[in-house]
Design brief:
This protein is α/β, with parallel strands linked by helices. It has 3 domains: 83 residues, no CATH class; 309 residues, Rossmann fold, CATH 3.40.50.2000; 278 residues, Rossmann fold (3-Layer(aba) Sandwich). Helix content is 45%, strand content 13%. It contains 30 helices and 21 strands. Strands 1, 2, 5, 6, 7, 8, 9, 10, 14 and 15 form a 10-stranded mixed sheet that branches. A hairpin with a 2-residue loop joins strand 7 and strand 8. The longest helix is centred in the middle third of the chain and has 30 residues. The radius of gyration is 25 Å and the shape is globular. The protein starts with 6 loop residues before the first helix and ends in a 5-residue tail after the last helix. 52% of the residues are buried. The model has no long low-confidence stretch (mean pLDDT 96). It binds pyridoxal-5'-phosphate. Pyridoxal-5'-phosphate binds next to helix 9, helix 25 and helix 26.
């Protein structure tokens, strides 16, 4: 098989290793350690400088190198093994879904999301929601689900973060070079790029479609930057969360309505349509329109839509749910509702909702009214969502509101550090990845000698330190960063001392500044003569979020200050790449959101599975995972619903207390070999409890069993063939 994906690469590659092109163009490589290793081996320098982007590597590596590799027996042996593994993994029939539901193998599941964090080279995600979509896709591939993702190709992605000398966040947008990432244009039979037209108000917007291969799964990305569009329409897919409300509404029309059109154009017939957050909720309208055009009565059409729609809500923060004014909606949909055969008022009623700030057209309410299966992303978030949305079901008691939960998980193959991988293969099982959700398997973590686990952790910690220093060096050279700016990037951190990591979006409810509430107490911790504590922060504030940026600036000022003595660092431009280093290389993962604002949280799962205990408020996933031995809880005795300032005060107090009394002493209590045995016991318990339960393996199986399969069966019942 030597399909041509990229003519430049195709022409460069010697025949013997021609399939490197195919491997580079399927992001499957990114979670297969042998494949990653193959690219690393191909050109170690480029592996680093391209930030792990094989497509770019294959363009840039020298022809001499390629010719030499094609004759290097050791490389070829590894190449052949990886190709065999890829063929097996991408082949049919033997995956969990096909084995468990052989009769449903031909059904399809479409998954719409505004962001997908699949790989750093494709910056089409901003944070947790996107990373979750990416992990969802990868796991769907691993389990063999017939899965199609639909989203946007943002030319300029989210943004790169740089802090100016005063610590103020600057957003830098760079154009994606499509030919340097694993993007394939979807072509018509005559070889031209496919076009899908979507009516946005009174305009027609043309979309080009790109395909991304994510293992067995397919991701289709829409792109409005095509010649036939007016300049302002070409900008519609330029940036993730970049515009005003008007732009946002137009983007959501593209996502929901364009999403259905793309799937039709590709002649795919999904049984289930999964809305990942309300951004894509207009999708239900377009499908309703199709049913109505077939002559189906309204109520029956609604029944079909509900049977085939799954909706996942992601935020307990009211402002996190998109709303538009009725006037705005009217402007874009006035010619749409006649096609549904309903009046203006009936149309508006589909999304009408009073969120406490007034009645608006609410995307979450639309999604909830039109979905037969709805879930939150942790047990606690399910509960909060039932309370929050209960007015949509006025006849039901709160505990009977039809919103369930599937707790989020992380894709273990993507987030596990290589040093930990080696230990799991040796002591847990060589095929631990395929058995990762068997809790009994992880009892074997006790067999790992303390010294071995500790050494692996120290190795990963040193890798983080090297990465931070290299970033500091780069910013010194490229931006002439000042000496105190460099100091703030972590160059004075001591690898032998405790490091606490805190990395996430700078949303105010996440309270990145909590540890700074009592400066004397903080200084006592970080300047302790024998048992110092250090902090590494990272994260972006939304470009329009000035309070978030101010908080970040304040934090950066502390990091630069002489008072803190270089023990507080801020790593700029948090993304998936730097996230891997952080969740594998700090000693403790700290999370202190204002409860119950963190719907789930996932970075603590990534850390825990790398043996990095979580120190967190009992919110989201941690309320389910914490057992007293696998990490720490930040817990005050304030009742729920106390005013914010009181909560912040009590939580800060609890945070200092647990750091002083528990975290720090345990870390510095060493045996004769300088191994912190009590600490290692906690690392082991984190791995044992989090691995099998908080992985996307467990998560996708739950979605399949509780949502996708019942939905497919219902559709088959209604329509005969399950295609809708
Ligand atoms: C995992 C991850 C997130 C999600 O973090 P939360 O714990 O949900 O706040 C955000 N950004 C990046 C880059 C990540 O890798």
């Amino acid at each position: 098989m030597d399909t041509e994906y990229n003519p430049v690469i195709h022409a460069r590659l010697p025949r013997r290793i021609i399939r490197l092109e195919q491997l580079a163009y399927n992001l499957w490589w990114s979670w297969n350690r042998n494949a990653r290793d193959l690219f690393k081996r191909m050109d170690r320098t480029l592996w680093t400088t391209t930030r792990h982007n094989p497509v770019k590597m294959l363009i840039e590596t020298s022809s001499e190198n390629l010719a030499a590799l094609a004759k290097d027996p050791a490389f070829l042996r590894q190449y052949d093994a990886v190709m065999m593994e890829m063929d097996r993994d991408l082949g049919n029939g033997h995956h969990w879904f096909a084995q468990t539901y052989p009769e449903l193998e031909s059904e399809k599941i479409a998954y719409l999301s505004a962001e997908f964090g699949v790989h750093t080279s494709m910056p089409i995600y901003s944070g947790g929601l996107g990373i979750l979509s990416g992990d969802h896709n990868k796991e769907a591939s691993d389990l063999g689900l017939p899965f199609i993702g639909v989203g946007f190709l943002y030319e300029q992605g989210y943004f790169s973060q740089r802090l100016d000398p005063s610590g103020w966040q600057e957003s830098i947008y760079t154009d994606l070079r499509q030919e340097e990432v694993a993007l394939l244009p979807v072509l018509c039979k005559d070889g031209t790029c496919i076009r899908v037209n979507v009516t946005v108000g009174d305009r027609e917007v043309a979309l080009q479609v790109w395909e991304v291969l994510v293992g067995r799964a397919r991701l289709y990305l829409m792109d409005a930057n095509v010649e036939e569009n007016a300049p302002w329409d070409r900008e519609l897919t330029a940036r993730l969360y970049g515009g005003d409300r008007e732009m946002r509404l137009q983007q959501e029309i593209l996502l929901g309505i364009g999403g259905v059109k793309i799937i039709r154009m590709l002649d795919l017939k999904p049984a289930v349509w999964h809305l990942n957050e309300g951004h894509s909720a207009f999708m239900v309208l377009e499908r309703l329109k199709e049913y109505v055009a077939q002559g189906m009565p309204w109520n029956e059409a609604i029944e079909h839509i509900r049977a085939g729609t799954v909706f996942t809500t992601h935020t307990p923060v009211p402002a996190g749910h998109d709303t538009f004014t009725f006037t705005q909606v009217e402007r874009y949909f006035h010619s749409y509702w006649p096609q549904l055969g309903i009046s203006r008022d009936e149309f508006m009623a589909l999304g009408s909702y009073d969120n406490g700030y007034g009645v608006n057209f609410n995307m979450t309410a639309l999604a909830m009214r039109m979905s037969g299966r709805i879930n939150g992303v942790s047990a606690l978030h399910g509960e909060v969502s039932r309370r929050m949305w209960r007015t949509l079901w006025p006849e039901k008691a709160e505990n009977a509101i039809p919103i369930g939960h599937v707790t989020n998980g992380v894709h273990l193959a993507s987030w596990t550090g290589e040093a930990m991988h080696r230990i799991y293969r040796q002591y847990i099982s060589p095929d631990w990845l395929s058995r990762q959700d068997e809790p009994m398997l992880w009892e074997r973590i006790e067999d790992v000698p303390d010294q071995v686990l500790w050494d692996a952790h120290v190795y990963l910690k040193n890798k983080l330190f090297s990465a931070m220093r290299e970033r500091a060096r780069q910013s010194r050279m490229q931006q002439q960063a000042s000496a105190d700016h460099l100091l703030a990037s972590g160059i004075l951190l001591d690898p032998d001392a405790l490091v606490i990591g805190f990395a996430r979006r700078f949303a105010t409810y996440k309270r990145a500044g909590l540890i700074f509430r009592d400066l004397e107490r903080l200084k006592a911790l970080i300047h302790h003569r024998y048992r110092p504590v250090q902090f590494v922060f990272a994260g972006k504030a939304h470009p329009a979020d000035d309070p978030g940026k101010r908080l970040l600036q304040e934090l950066h000022q502390w990091a630069r200050s002489a008072e803190m003595g270089g023990r507080i660092a801020f790593v700029e431009d948090y993304d998936m790449h730097i996230a891997r280093y952080l969740v594998q290389g700090v000693d403790v993962w700290m999370n202190n959101p204002r409860k119950p604002m963190e719907a789930s949280g996932t970075s603590g799962m990534k850390a825990s599975f790398n043996g990095i205990p979580n120190l967190s408020i009992l919110d989201g996933w941690w309320a389910e995972a914490y057992n007293g031995r696998n990490g720490w809880a930040i817990q005050s005795d304030l009742p729920d619903g106390a005013p914010e300032w009181e909560q912040d005060k009590a939580d800060a107090e609890a945070l200092y207390r647990v750091l002083e009394d528990e975290v720090v002493p345990l870390y510095y209590q060493r045996n004769n070999d300088n191994v912190p045995q009590g600490w290692v016991a906690m690392m082991k318990d984190a791995i044992r409890t989090v691995g099998p339960m908080f992985s996307t393996r467990r998560m996708i199986k739950e979605y399949t069993q509780q949502y996708y399969v019942p939905s497919i069966r219902e559709i088959i019942e209604l329509e005969g063939d399950g295609e809708n």
